[in-house]
Write a structure and sequence with these properties.
Layout lengths: L9 H7 L17 H14 L12 H10 L5 H14 L3 H7 L1 H7 L6 H19 L7 H5 L6 H12 L8 H9 L8 H11 L2 H17 L35 H4 L5
Helix pairs in contact: 2-12, 3-9, 5-7, 6-7, 10-12
Length: 260
């Protein structure tokens, strides 16, 4: 007598059933049209055609050191410590000669000063050994130095070498998400989205404009919407002004107290 094939039990069938795929969540898009983005950065450019960083530096090397020291610290705090440091050591060779202990003593008012002193000493050594005492104009080479991450490399490449890089700090990350300009979950994600949407003529200075706007106007705790020159373009639901302020230069004297 022929045997009938076994019918799979419901448990077996369920085990063989492929798991349902979760729908892929598409990244949030910018809330702004190309025309609105162009208008936004045009106003920043009219207010401050040549924005400058606020870290004290004498040359490319001291700029690199200042940016390394500014990690998890304010520019104002770094600027209080670096004049004497840079008076004594404004080249990698002089910084190595100064020594880690002396560097540490000179920057002890800055947060994480022990780790930063070690990084400054070691990166100075590597600049002498590998790059002839010069700061390289290359992201990979910069990020190979102790204490230098992507943001630090972007700042140096932009300010010292004029490259159109965007260094996403806490201000830019907040603005990109608050305004819906370039929403992202990580600084690198925000960086890539800003690079894709900012018109080419404005890319080089864009990170300075956004940092200064976040520092002096669109602050973390108390945004000063009445001082904002893009308030009519802004799509933040909680904004308190709809009419743009008159264009003025960025800075504490012109715009108000800074928000570090």
């Amino acid at each position: 007598m022929a045997t009938r094939p076994k019918t799979p039990t419901s448990k077996t069938a369920a085990a063989k059933k492929p798991a349902a795929k979760r729908p892929t969540k598409k990244p949030a898009r910018s809330l702004y049209s190309a025309a609105e983005i162009e208008a936004l950065f045009r106003r920043f450019a009219e207010a401050e055609p040549e924005p400058k960083g606020e870290l004290y530096a004498l040359n490319t090397f001291t700029l690199l050191v200042a940016v390394v020291l500014s990690a998890q610290a304010t520019d104002a705090g770094v600027n209080k410590a670096t004049p004497e440091l840079f008076r004594l050591a404004d080249t990698p060779e002089k910084m190595v000669a100064l020594g880690e202990d002396r560097i540490r003593d000179l920057i002890k008012t800055i947060g994480l000063f022990k780790t930063k002193a070690k990084n400054v000493f070691l990166l100075s050594q590597l600049l002498v050994e590998r790059h002839g005492g010069e700061v390289p104009a290359d992201r990979e080479a910069l990020q190979a130095l102790p204490g230098v991450g992507r943001k630090t490399a972007n700042v140096v490449l932009n300010i010292a070498f004029g490259q159109p890089t965007i260094a996403v700090d806490t201000h830019i990350f907040r603005l990109a998400n608050r305004l819906g300009l370039a929403p992202g979950k990580t600084p690198e994600e925000v960086e890539k989205r800003l690079e894709a949407l900012i018109p080419e003529p404005y890319v080089r200075h864009s990170h300075h404009w956004l940092i200064l706007h976040g520092r002096y106007v669109c602050k973390a705790r108390k945004p000063e919407c009445e001082r904002c020159l893009i308030s009519d373009l802004c799509k933040w639901p909680e904004k308190t002004a709809d009419h743009p302020a008159m264009p003025v230069a960025f800075g504490a004297a012109a715009v108000g107290e800074r928000d570090d």
